[in-house]
Amino acid sequence: MRTSRLLRRSIISWLILSPLIIAVLFPFAVMFITAIKPATEVLRPTWWPSSPQWGNFITMWNATNFGAALWNSIYVAVLSTVMSILVSIPAAYALSRFRFVGKGFVQQFLLISQMLSPIVLVIGLFRLLVALKLLDNLNAVVFVYATFNIAFSVWMLQSYFSTIPKDLEEAAWMEGATPWQALRKVFLPLALPAVTVTAIFSFINAWNEFVIALTMLRNQASYTLPIQVFSLVAGRYTVEWHHVMAAAFVATIPIAIVFAWLQRYLVRGLALGAVK
Amino acid sequence: MNRSIFTNPYVLIAPAFMLAAFIILWPLFQIGEISISNVNRFGQLRGFSGPENFMAVFADPQFLASLWRTVIWTVGIVAGTILVSIPVALILNEDFYGRGLARVIIMLPWAVSLTMTAIVWRWALSGESGMLNSALLGLGLIDQNIQWLAQASTAFPVQIAIGILVSIPFTTTIFLGGLSAIPDDLYEAARLEGANGWQIFLTITLPLLRPFINIAVVMNTITVFNSFPIIWATTQGGPANSTDILVTYLYKLGFNFGKLGEASALSLLMFALLLFFTIIYVRLAMRGERA
Q: Are A202 and A149 in contact (CB under 8 A)?
C-alpha cells in the first residue's frame, strides 16, 4: 500500500518536473551532439551524426587554443579562491565572535559590495588597471575576482562559524593554548566543511566569470575559457560550431560533475547561510 | 582574555576590508569623478562639466528603451523564476523515487557558466541549422523554421526564458531551506482538521515560506538586473540595439562608443538603483530576524 502510493507520487513528480528537466538537459544534448558531428554535417539540422567523430575533441584542442585558456582559467580560479578564503576566514571569525565599534559599518559595506556587480564598476575597474599598467595581467584579474567574492564568502562563513560554540575555544584557552593554537587545533578543523563549500562556490564563480575577463584581458594569450570560447563565436562570419561545442563541453563537464557530486553539501551550506 | 592579534577584530578584518576598499571604492570614486567631468574618448579628464553627462544619458532614447527593457527583463525573470521554483521545491521536498537524480539535474545550470549556456543556446536557436527548430519541426509544433534571434519579438522572450532557467537552481535551494524549517506537526494538525492539500499550501506553507520568497525576490532582482552574459553572448543587444538592457547599453557606451562620461553617469544611476534594492533587502532581512 505504502510503496504503491510512493510509486504513484514518483510518477506524478517526474511528470510535473519533466518539462523543466528537458529544458535543462536540452543544451547539454545540443553541446554533445554538435561536438561529435562531422564537420560537413554541422550545419545540417539533423539530430544525430551519421558517424560520431570523437576526433573532434582532439582537433578542437589545437584549433581553439584550448590548453592555454584552460591553464589561464585554472590559474585565475585557484588563486582567487585561495586569496578570498584567506582574507575571509579571519574577517568572518571576527564578525561571528566579537562585538566591536564599527561592526555594523563593516557588515553594511560587505552587503553593498555584494550587491555591486563588476559590471556597474567596470569603467572604474578598467581605469584602475590601466593606471596600474595591469591590463592583460592575470594576477590583476585574480585580485578583482577575489575581492568580489569576499562579501559572499564572509557571509557564508560567518553564518556557519556562529553555529560553532565559543566554549570550545575558551576551553582551549583555559588549558593554556594561545589564541592561535586554539584557532588552528580546535576551531579551523570544525570550520572545514564551511570553508570547503565556500571555496567551491568561489571557484565556480571565478571559473565562469565573463565581464571582467572580457574587459581586462585583451590579448588572446591571457584569455580564460569563457572569453576564449566567446571569441570563437563573436563577430565571426564562419563559426566552427563543432569545435565551439566541443570546447564548451570540455570546459563545462568537469565542473558540472564536481557540482553534482557535492551539490547536497553546497545546498545545505547555502540554505544555512540564507536562513541566518 | 588573551591579548593576541587573533583576538583583535580590527586586525582580523583589515585584509578583507582593505582589499575590498581598494578594488571597490577606488573605482567607485573614479566613476563619480568622470561622471561630472568632460572626458574624451581616451579617458582624459578635461575639467568639470556639471550634470551634463547625466543630461546626455537622460536625453538618449536608447537609455529610456534600455531602462524599460530592463524592467521587463527583471520582472519577467524574477516572477517566472519564483512561479516555477515554488512547485519544484515542493516536489523536491517530498520523497519519491529518483529524487536525488532529479535534484542534481535541476541544479545543473548553476554549475555552468552563463557565457557557455548562452553560446550553446545561440547555436541551438540558429534559424537554419539550430536544433531547437529541428526538434520543434520534428514534433510538429511548428511548420517552418523560426529565426529566433533575428528580431527582438522572439529574441527577448527567449533570453528571458534562458534567464529563468538559470535562476531556478538558486531559488529552489532557498525555498528548500525554507520548507525544511516548517515543522511537520503543523501539517499533521491541519490534516487532522480535515484540510486538503491546496488549503494546507495556502494557509501553512505559503505564509511560512513568505520570508524566503521575499529574500529570493530581492536577491534575484539584484542578480538579474546585473546579468550581462546571456544577452551579450546571444545577440550583443542586437539586432539594432533592440535587446539591450542597461548593463549591455552601459558596456557599449563605455567600450564600443567611447562615451566614458555618459557611461560613468549611467553607472552611478544603476548604483543608486541597486542601493535602493539593497535597502529593501536589509529591511526584509531585519523584519525576518525580529519575527
A: yes
Does A34 lie at the interface with B, CB-CB under 8 angstroms?
yes
B264–A256 C-beta distance less than 8 A: no
Interface predicted TM-score (ipTM) over 0.95: no
| Cα(A62)–Cα(A60) distance, integer angstroms | 6
Q: Output the DSSP codes for B235-270.
A: TTT-STTTT--HHHHHHIIIIIS--HHHHHHHHHHH
- Give the bridge partners for B229, in sequence order: none
Domains and CATH numbers, chain A: 67-231 (1.10.3720.10)
| Coil, helix or strand at residue B288 | helix
Q: Kindly state the cell numbers that stand for A68.
A: 592555454
Residues of chain B with pLDDT > 90, as a percent, come to 42
Q: How far is A55 from chain B (nearest CA, A)?
A: 20
Does the CB of B144 have a partner CB in chain A at under 8 Å?
Answer: no
From chain B residues 193-232, the ones with a CB under 8 A of any chain A CB are 212, 215, 222-223, 226, 228-229, 232
CB A35 within 8 A of CB A241: no
- Going by C-alpha positions, the residue among A266, A178, A37, A88 that lies closest to residue B2 is A178
B9-13, Cβ contacts within 8 angstroms, sequence gap of 24 or more: B9/A94, B9/A95, B9/A97, B9/A98, B9/A100, B9/A103, B10/A94, B10/A100, B10/A102, B11/A90, B12/A90, B12/A91, B12/A93, B12/A94, B13/A90, B13/A91, B13/A94, B13/A95, B13/A106
In the predicted structure, residue B195 carries a pLDDT above the cut 80: yes
Per the model's pLDDT, the better-predicted residue between B247 and A113 turns out to be: B247
CA distance A164 to A185: 14
CATH architecture of B61-290: Orthogonal Bundle (1.10)
Q: Tell me the shortest Cα–Cα distance from A226 to chain B, in angstroms.
A: 6
pLDDT confidence of residue A160: 84
**B48 in A contact zone (CB under 8 Å):** no
